[in-house]
Each structure stands twice: as structure tokens, then as C-alpha cells.
Design brief:
The protein is an all-beta fold and 512 residues long. Helix content is 2%, strand content 44%. A hairpin with a 6-residue loop joins strand 28 and strand 29. It is rod-shaped.
Length: 512
């Protein structure tokens, strides 16, 4: 805790005898004297009626304005003579203590003194008593005692000293209160605060952040009755662009930055940024051609779009194309590179080109690919295809530059039409009515269909029927018999692939 300044309300020693305190009874008991102590002239109030039997002598201060004080401290310097110095002292009425009282009031009562208004603070006893030999040698034992009282509520107060038959000299009476000093702690300013009235409680004081500092929760300190700051709560932190220096916030020098409210210091601008042109930068701007994605922290270097994909190749596999490429030589300083594929088809005879239609199929969605290859199917014959692979990363949207590489392939081989499914549309004991499908784009290339069928029990003996449509009736079959059927498309270039083998059964004899 910091040392506490005190505010003095009364200092008898500094008044040099000009206070004129009230004595009661008037003219008896306490008296103001001058003396020399350590070669200095001092004033004191003393009483020493030890030889006169029972005593009750009061000394009251002037009215003391309280101001903002809540608890006051009373510091006394005094001497007490040893009762044994007075062998015939009043039949045992000699005392070696005196009593300290106080009374609060809103007005100054002047010379009107009423004992009943005063409340006792304590009995004041010396640590050291001045014995006869010391007194004779002018070697008095000076005592120092401090008492406190509070809470005070009226505008002012009096102190009073009650002597019941002692030999006492009051050399100093200081009355003061304590306050916690104005302080900067944890980047927050706390105002000068009068110490609390109760020694058990702490006064919570809210602080205000120093310039360029902020706090989530208002910082607080607690001022105790002794004028000490205790129990700090919360703190202020320098805002973005400022770092702490002692208990103040200092702007980040040019070439450095601080991105957020924190206790950390300024950092050098990261790679591929321009040095912050002015002080107090929260972020360093990117170099030309470099960018920052919204989720990129300001501490990270600025990055750029990747270079184009490398070694793009397209290899034909019948009516399919295997498209392959290698990652960019320069990923732009990022790890989030993805690929997108666009496709263009051109007809050599007409020279017409246009984006590929929806009939082209990719083995994976052609956007946001993380791998380095796809298979493209359902391509048309005798058409030139150009596949363009674009490499992108998190900052590509912020750049005009596109990172693309292409490969062109001509699809000459055609996959023969294939019957994909055969259905049973009707049956009797001696016939089966069948139909089938062929992919739409291949239908125009089919010349005829060839249906091969045999009894399941004897697949070596089979019959063949040719037809032009996609349905047929197989006649002259045996009742209640399972037949195995396959359908093949015929083109002017030759036979297509067989359909999968299907099994159908005629009705038993007599059923229709």
C-alpha cells in the first residue's frame, strides 16, 4: 500500500500558545506554560494538583471544523510525573493517567462548557513515567499516544482532557484525518479519497482509464481507514495501436502495430506489408499485389493469389477424359488453394465454340476441388474440348489476376450404345412382352436391336430376334418356363455392349 497523506485539522504545537483553550473550573487546574525544550521555546498545558485531594479539571479545545473527515486521529505528546515523587500526595488521590473526551456539534458553543455533552474516547496512560531524579535533571520522559474516533457526522467537534489528580504536561496535540492519495494503478486513475470512518470496512472507489486505455469492467480500488489503497479489481488495457509504458498508453511507433485491446506490446509489421505510415497503427496495410482475407489475423503476413496450376493434361479414355494437373509453383503464401474447372466445346467443321452443356459429367463437383484430378464423362464424339483449371486461394476474390492453365483434347472414339435395363411389360403361357431403354444421346446412333433368349435350363440353345423399336414380343415359348434374356444395340459401326442378363418366366399352362 502507498503511504497516506494526512490532513491536519489542529496542531497545538504550531499555534505557539495562541489558541486560548477553555479550562474548567475557570482559573484552576490546567494552565498554559512556556518552557524550553531542546533549546526551543515551547508552549504546553499542564496540571499538577496532586497535593490537593480529589480533582476534576477539564481542558477543552476550541471548536474544530470537521470538513470531509469521517474518522479523526488524535496524536498526543505528554509527560506524566511519578506519584512517588510526591510522598504526601493527597492521601492516595494521585493519578498517573488522564482521560480523553470528544463532543460533536454543528455550532461553536464558545465558553459554554457542559460535561454531559462529551463522550469518553479512552484513558491515556504513559509508557514512561518521569521520576523525581529525571525531573530534577530536566530529563523528562516524553510519551506519544494516538487514538482515533469515528464516524463523525456533525459540522465540527471539541476535544477535552479530564484530569483526576495527575501531574501532566501536554506538549503537543495534533488532530488529523487520513486520505488515500490520488494514484494511477493498473492504467487507471483514482481520485484522492477520504479514508473510511470504520476501520473494518473498505470504501470502493471507481477509477477512470488513462488516455487511450479501455476496460471491460470499471477498475476499482478500496481505501481503508488508514488511508491505504487495497484490493484492486479489474484493470485498463491499452486500445489497438497503443502499448503500455509505465501507467500510460504510448502510440505504436511507425513500422509497428497492435491489433487489439490487450496488455501486449506493439509488433513489427509482418512480411508483405507496408510499414504503417503513421503512429498508432492497428494494422499494417498490404503491399501492392498482396491482400488479406477477412479471417486473416493482422499478425499474419499479407498473401497473394496462387500461380497457375502446372502440367495440366487431358487423356482420352473412349468417351471419357482423365484430367490431371500439379499444384501451383507458388501457392501465394497460403494453404487454402482450391481448383475450379470450366469446359468449352468446339465443332471443327463449323468452328463454333460454346461452354459445355449440362450433359457433360464430372466425377466431382468442378468447383472448390482440393485434389489434382477429375474424370469427365458423357462427351460427344468428334468435338474438341478445352478444359481450363483455375487455382484459387483465400485472397483470389480481391485480385484482378486469374491463375489458369488449359488442356485441349479431341474426342474421336465413341462408346457404343448400351441397353441399360430390360422390363417385362406383359406375359402369357407362350409369350413375353419386353421393353428396354438406351441413354437419350445414344439413341440416334442405334440401327437395330438384337434380342438373344434361351431357356434357363439350357442356355446353350438360344434364339435371336432383331427389331427396330425398343420393345418386342417373344413368341412360341413353353408355359411355366424361366427364360434368360439379353439385349444388344447395333450401330452402323458394329455391335454395342450387351445389356445385363435378365430372367423372366411365362405363365403356367391354362392361365392367361
Amino acid at each position: 500500500p502507498l503511504s497516506s497523506p494526512t490532513v491536519v485539522l489542529l496542531d497545538f504545537a504550531k499555534a505557539h500558545g495562541e489558541l486560548g483553550w477553555l479550562t474548567h473550573p475557570y482559573g484552576k487546574g490546567w494552565d498554559q506554560l512556556q518552557n524550553v525544550l531542546n533549546d526551543s521555546l515551547i508552549y504546553m498545558y499542564s496540571v499538577c494538583n496532586v497535593l490537593e485531594g480529589e480533582q476534576e479539571n477539564w481542558l477543552r479545545t476550541n471548536w474544530i471544523y470537521r470538513g470531509v473527515a469521517q474518522r479523526i486521529f488524535i496524536e498526543l505528546q505528554f509527560t506524566v510525573r511519578d506519584c512517588n515523587s510526591f510522598p504526601t500526595a493527597g492521601g492516595g488521590s494521585c493519578k498517573e493517567t488522564f482521560n480523553l473526551y470528544y463532543a460533536e456539534s454543528d455550532v461553536d458553543y464558545g465558553t459554554n462548557f457542559q460535561k454531559r455533552q462529551f463522550r469518553k474516547i479512552d484513558t491515556i496512560a504513559p509508557d514512561e513515567i518521569t521520576v523525581q531524579e529525571d525531573f530534577a535533571a530536566r530529563n523528562v520522559k516524553l510519551n506519544l499516544e494516538v487514538r482515533s474516533v469515528g464516524p463523525l457526522q456533525r459540522k465540527g467537534f471539541y476535544l477535552a482532557f479530564q484530569d483526576l489528580g495527575a501531574c501532566v504536561a501536554l506538549l503537543s496535540v495534533r488532530v488529523y484525518y487520513k486520505r488515500c492519495p490520488a494514484v494511477v494503478r493498473g492504467m487507471a486513475r483514482f481520485p484522492e479519497t477520504v479514508a473510511g470512518a470504520d476501520s473494518q470496512t473498505l470504501a470502493e472507489v471507481r477509477g477512470s482509464c488513462v488516455a487511450e486505455a479501455v476496460a471491460e469492467q470499471a477498475p476499482a480500488l478500496h481505501c481503508n481507514a488508514d488511508g491505504e489503497w487495497l484490493v484492486p479489481i479489474g484493470e485498463c488495457l491499452c486500445r489497438a495501436g497503443f502499448q503500455s509504458l509505465g501507467d500510460s498508453c504510448q502510440a505504436c511507433p511507425p513500422g509497428t502495430f497492435k491489433a487489439a485491446v490487450s496488455s501486449g506490446g506493439c509488433q513489427p509489421c509482418p512480411p508483405h506489408t507496408l510499414p504503417s505510415p503513421a503512429a498508432a497503427a492497428a494494422v499494417c496495410p498490404c503491399e501492392d499485389g498482396f491482400f488479406r482475407a477477412p479471417e486473416d489475423p493482422p499478425e499474419d503476413p499479407c498473401t497473394r493469389p496462387p500461380s497457375p496450376p502446372q502440367a495440366v493434361t487431358a487423356v482420352g479414355l473412349g468417351a471419357a477424359v482423365q484430367l490431371r494437373w500439379a499444384p501451383p509453383a507458388d501457392p501465394g503464401g497460403r494453404e487454402d488453394v482450391t481448383y475450379s474447372i470450366t469446359c468449352e466445346q468446339c465443332w471443327p467443321e463449323s468452328g463454333e465454340c460454346r461452354p459445355c452443356d449440362g450433359g457433360v459429367r464430372f466425377s466431382q463437383a468442378p468447383r472448390g476441388l482440393t485434389g489434382t484430378g477429375v474424370t469427365v464423362t458423357e462427351l460427344e464424339p468428334h468435338v474438341n474440348y478445352t478444359f481450363t483449371v483455375e487455382a484459387q486461394n483465400g485472397v483470389s476474390p480481391y485480385s484482378q489476376q486469374r491463375s489458369v492453365a488449359s488442356a485441349t483434347i479431341s474426342v474421336n472414339q465413341t462408346e457404343p450404345p448400351r441397353v441399360t435395363s430390360v422390363s417385362l411389360d406383359g406375359r402369357t403361357a407362350t409369350s413375353l412382352v419386353l421393353s428396354w431403354t438406351v441413354p437419350l444421346r445414344q439413341q440416334s446412333r442405334v440401327w437395330k436391336y438384337e434380342v438373344t433368349y434361351s431357356k434357363k435350363v439350357d442356355e446353350n440353345s438360344y434364339s435371336v430376334l432383331r427389331c427396330e423399336g425398343t420393345s418386342v414380343t417373344l413368341p412360341k415359348l413353353s408355359p411355366g418356363t424361366a427364360y434368360v434374356v439379353r439385349v444388344q444395340a447395333l450401330t452402323t459401326d458394329g455391335h454395342g455392349a450387351f445389356s445385363p442378363q435378365h430372367e423372366f418366366e411365362t405363365l403356367p399352362e391354362g392361365e392367361e
